[in-house]
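Exercise 7 asks you to align residues with tokens for two separate proteins.
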Amino acid sequence: MYQELVNKNKKLAVIGLGYVGLPIALAFAKKTKVIGFDINAERVDMMRKGIDPSKELPAKAFENCDITFTNDLDVLREANFFIVAVPTPVDEHNVPNLIPVQKASETIGKVLKKGDYVVFESTVYPGCTEEDCVPIIEKQSGLKMNTDYKIGYSPERINPGDKEHTIGSIIKVVSGCCAESLDTIAKVYELVVTAGVHKASSIKVAEAAKIIENTQRDLNIALMNELSIIFDRMNINTYEVLEAAGTKWNFLKFQPGLVGGHCIGVDPYYLTHKSKELGYDSQVILAGRVINDGMAEYVAKKVLQYIIQHNGNVKQSKVLIMGATFKENVSDIRNSKVADVVKELKAFSLNVEVVDPCANSEELQAEYGFTLTTQPSKDYDAVIVTVLHHEYKNLTDEYFASITKPHALIADLKGAYRGKIKTRGYWSL
């Protein structure tokens, strides 16, 4: 398989061309023939024109790539090595939503042939690939794993907005259903991952490795958020505390904040869901989730309390939120906790406006029911800086004074303006 891909006698396909799948597809397309498959015809058309719908990659990333973008199963059938990179979200009850990965498994089952390889990259709980995906593939294809085709798992490690840690520079964890498949999958990924690969002993180990990467980060941020709540009651600035503690060589430098997105705020629920199925109710992991999921309400109430004390007329008060995406310098709004802040503030009858240089107003309307304000006004009672985009980093006290009333609060969730706000009230996590 490996040599035939290198010789371009066989094709590699990537199913799901979002912020994970597209970079992978383009990286492989510089080494072998690739089919980029996505069910969204509009996105496929954009990529054919050299446009990344996720706004992560420049047009030059599409250059010198041997790739065919399609949503046609007949075209996908030409591939022999399939990589699945579809999203794995949770529903409104924080229960894993496996529909995208199940649909992808059905699609593969319809085009799979003897001798083919399938590698999942979507973040799932340990056991999902073999227990949930394989049966769907085999029901559709009539083929048997190991006997007729090989399967593996290699967790994605794409970090949106990060131009340093790219697919080629991050060690890739790989796994397979047997020794032969593990070796082949490793060699295929080594075509594009110059940092090398780590061979996991089993598919479940690779799945578990991915799920705990983000669970660990989630718990550490939860600790910072809880410390922030405690220090606020002590009238201590959390960022000053972290700056002091960070002088010790082994102090882990995490910060408080809203925890959204499609990884940190989601992945722990996959692990606790599987844990519950096995008869163990997670305590530490879910405690961290409770704290992080509650930060939007906490921020909204802090701003409300300030407005009541300094204005009194809540219904006539205006709040500006700066930043709507789930993190800085990306356009991705999935699972953005900023939307929860908006919802909480509006529940208190506050007038809320939102600006963001990266987000799409129509997408926000469709997903969360609010749009972006084109131009900020000059009479806000509070400004909440939630996401520190490049455009916000060097804002001054004079700027905030120009868009707010004299009694206004600048709520700086990232601590970016500490010591700089002199003429308005100031608060940070």
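Second protein for Exercise 7:
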Amino acid sequence: MHTKVKVHLALFIVSLIYGATFTIAKMVMPEFIKPFGFILLRIIVATVCIFFFHRHYVKGAITDKKDLFPLLISAIFGVSANMLLFFAGLAITQPINGAVLMLNTPIFVLIFAVILLKEKLSWQKITGIIIAALGALMVVGGSKFQFDSNNILGDIFVTLNAIIYAFYLVYAKRLMVKYHPLTVTLYSFFFGFFIVLPFGLNQALEIDFANMPQNIWFAVAFITIGATFLTYVLNAYALKHGSSSLVGSYIYLQPVMATIIAMAAGKDQLTAEKFISMLIVFGGVYLASYKPKASVIQAE
């Protein structure tokens, strides 16, 4: 399979998993596990999984000690701060606000990529991102999005999360190219654990695992292994072999996947408006990522 196809497949799987996460996470929080405790649990499980696979299949190491600081920055922006801000923001704002504000991420990815990586900014890429953004807004119901004094702090947290995660997708690109993606991800989660520990320790200790229903165990496993370990590894692979703006543009598929999953579960219905909105998103992402053969980036 061609590397470019693998990159798109990896990003599609990430969008699919994240699309399911919105529904599945609600089964767990806050009744069984509080948000910050859940973040710490996610990082612990993901770190153990990454360590196991890294030790048996990669065995790579950070050869330049100067890269330890960039890895710490990646841990702050890509693992700890973004997770903490998102959960803190989502707890005090409306879900529709959170979904819409997260759609800012690809915009900031594009800005940071141009500034830090000197990525070529084309009208095709800009147009594709704008089209995908409009389609995603239609999917999540942009007309219901509104600011008010009760939501403003949560909206600020979610927006900061979008900016921070966008910076990570661009900043970590150099590390992903220099080292194996799993090596970078392992160090990022290892550092991220110590950053999140003081925030989530008390809530994590309150988790009553003994009385947790079986379906909640499955939900926890999905979030910690699927929506944390697997998604970060796949995103890391995509960052190594594709552009940061391409990885960011796939965020627009997440509300589409969430809607499809909700319909499959009988919690939503397919309307002509939603179908058209999904087609617009797919069209925008395709336009933003399409490159003629002569201009395909070397990493691909």
